[in-house]
Each structure stands twice: as structure tokens, then as C-alpha cells.
Design a protein that fits this description.
Helix content is 39%, strand content 22%. α1 runs parallel beside α6 and α4 packs antiparallel against α5.
């Protein structure tokens, strides 16, 4: 039998076909890998949505909007406000706890900016259908609904959304995010409820969840008292926002959603939060302006209160209304000067 040697052309054709087959296999592998990733991401998103939606809680006696709104607002297109409440729960069935941290944030979509103001917990306010008292007592009197109504009356602006977080959930969320970075204003140390001592040093420092809680709550050692405390709390909030804006957070989204579902209550639906994140993916703390209420120390019946300066309150209210694109007008309430220029006096019995 005569054997024919394989021509160079045939060898070239076979090599080409082999190379083409490899490319096809590689393409199939990449497609399978991509579809697997999509499937996993979809599963993860579904799981995240299912867990996070447990945090949704409507406000009792309230429909789609604040009574100070003419129309409902939409988080993806309208200026809106959010009341942030850090809740300390008690085991006593007759005491539902107090809002130890009260912060209001307003967001303007056109400017893509946020204004953040802390309300000191000892601030003297009028609690609806009760009396003038410290604002942090409103939560124990009527829950989050009473706090919202009190803040709306105090600042004369609508509260569109609320977020409450208990302190245990706060520490877990910070730990899940990998900690939070703050700028410590001075050296100090303090203890937690378990008498564990934590040390903080002036300058940039990364804090764990428990460290962040101790850092945010310390007040007695701060020369600025509640003002310094409020500033440190705003640092924590802006630090958490920066962490949530980080791409690496996506890898922890399932754990974060679980913590949110277990420890946070809000009337913001998951789809609204996702719409905000999609529309403003680059939003971070650099777009946040921190505001501060000014006033003076006030002792009534030997009990300490913080009384807000009426002029400062009017200026701050006007700024927040402008940021929310609401009509502004001079605030005339119990905190404002009377026609003859004197300040309204408060008569009540206060409790610590």
C-alpha cells in the first residue's frame, strides 16, 4: 500500500480547527461563568430583598405623606427628609425606651446634597398632647410617631421617612461594614455597659462597632457637652454612608441586609432605597453639610434642659425648607420671641 504524507495545508487546517475549537470552548465557559454569576447575583438580590423588607414598618395613623405635604414625595425624584433615631430599649414593660440619638437629614436631588442636623436629646420642646419636656422623652410617651410629630412641630418641616436602629443593631452593622473611620477630636477613654474600657486618640482612627457606640455616646468628658457628642454621632453617620458607598460593600450585601432586617425599622421600602442607590451611585459624605442648633443651658426645677435660640431656629428652619424646596416663612411658635421682643417663658414640671 502506498502511504501519502500529510501536506502542510492539511496540517494547517487541522491546527486552525483545533484553535477555533479551543476558542469556542473558552467562550462557552465564559458564558456559563457569566450566567452563573448573574444567577448568583439574582439569588443574592432576592435573598437581600426578602430579608431587608422585614424592616418596613408603616406609621400608625398616617397615609402616604406627612400632614405638612400637599402631595406624596418620591425618593428618586423629589427632595425628601429622613428622621434618624438611635433607640435605647429598656427591659421594663412600662418604659419603652428613649431616642438617645435624634438626627434629621434632608436630600435635594437636583443639587445631590444632604444637610444633616442633630437635635440634642435634652432640647426643650412642646410634645403634642403632653407638655413641654425633653425631646428624647417623646419616644417613651408615644413611640416613633410621637417623635416625628414633635420634630415636625419643632422644625416646621415635613418628615417624609424615618429610620430607627437599636444600639445592638448599630454595632453589628458597623462590624459587618468592616468598621468606620472617624476623626477623633481629642484623647479620651470611656466604658460600655459591660465596663469594658475603650481608648480614643486624637486624629484618624478606625473603630469597630462597639468602639463606635462608645465613641458616639460619650458626653461627660467632652468640653462641648452634647454639642461635641452630636458632632461625633454625625461623624459616625457620614462614615457609615461612605462605607455603604464602597464597591466592596456589594460582597457583604447579604449580611448587611440581614442586620437591617433584624435591627432597623423604616417606612422606606426596599425598592425605594435601591432606586436611590441606582440613581445616585456616587453620593458620599463629601456632599453632606452638617448643621447645628444653637442655644443655652436652662435649669427648671433643678432639671437641665437645652433651650434653642429662637433666631437660630428660624434660620435653620428656613435653610432646611429651602433645601426641600418648600415655601419659607417666619416661624412663630412658643420658641419664638413675642411681639414686644421678649421670649416666651415655659412653665411645666420636667423630669430627668
Amino acid at each position: 500500500m502506498i502511504q501519502h504524507n500529510q501536506s502542510p495545508t492539511n496540517r494547517s487546517d487541522k491546527a486552525y480547527k483545533k484553535k477555533k475549537r479551543r476558542r469556542r470552548n473558552l467562550l462557552i465557559f465564559l458564558i456559563v461563568l457569566f450566567l452563573s454569576a448573574i444567577s448568583f447575583s439574582g439569588y443574592l438580590l432576592f435573598q437581600t430583598y426578602a430579608v431587608a423588607k422585614d424592616s418596613y414598618q408603616e406609621l400608625k395613623g398616617r397615609e402616604e405623606k406627612s400632614k405638612l405635604r400637599e402631595e406624596p414625595v418620591y425618593i428618586s425624584s423629589d427632595p425628601f427628609s429622613v428622621l434618624l433615631l438611635g433607640i435605647e430599649n429598656y427591659t421594663d414593660e412600662n418604659d419603652h425606651g428613649r431616642s438617645d440619638t435624634i438626627m434629621l437629614a434632608t436630600f435635594n436631588p437636583d443639587k445631590q446634597t444632604m444637610k444633616l442636623v442633630s437635635i440634642p436629646r435634652d432640647t426643650l420642646v412642646s410634645i403634642p398632647e403632653y407638655k413641654e419636656d425633653k425631646i428624647n422623652h417623646a419616644y417613651s410617651i408615644g413611640g416613633k410617631e410621637m417623635v416625628i410629630e414633635t420634630v415636625e412641630g419643632f422644625l416646621d418641616i415635613p418628615i417624609d421617612y424615618y429610620v430607627t436602629v437599636n444600639f445592638k443593631g448599630f454595632t453589628n452593622i458597623v462590624d459587618t461594614l468592616g468598621g468606620v473611620t472617624v476623626d477623633v477630636p481629642f484623647d479620651f477613654n470611656d466604658i460600655n455597659r459591660n465596663w469594658d474600657r475603650f481608648y480614643f486618640y486624637e486624629g484618624t482612627q478606625k473603630l469597630s462597632g462597639e468602639e463606635a457606640l462608645v465613641y458616639a455616646r460619650m458626653r461627660k468628658q467632652d468640653p462641648r457637652g452634647d454639642f461635641g457628642r452630636n458632632e461625633r454621632q454625625r461623624q459616625i453617620v457620614t462614615g457609615v454612608i461612605d462605607q455603604l458607598s464602597s464597591p466592596k460593600t456589594l460582597l457583604k450585601i447579604d449580611d448587611i441586609a440581614s442586620e437591617i432586617g433584624n435591627n432597623i425599622e423604616t417606612n422606606m421600602r426596599v425598592k425605594e432605597a435601591l432606586a436611590f442607590r441606582k440613581k445616585y451611585p456616587d453620593f458620599n459624605s463629601s456632599a453632606i453639610e452638617q448643621l447645628e442648633l444653637k442655644g443655652y443651658d436652662n435649669y427648671i426645677n433643678s432639671v437641665y434642659y437645652f433651650s434653642v435660640d429662637p433666631e437660630n431656629l428660624n434660620e435653620l428652619t428656613t435653610e432646611l425648607k429651602s433645601h426641600l424646596e418648600l415655601e419659607t416663612e417666619i416661624q412663630t411658635d412658643a420658641n419664638s420671641p413675642t411681639e414686644d421682643g421678649s421670649q416666651t417663658e415655659y412653665e411645666y414640671e420636667g423630669n430627668e
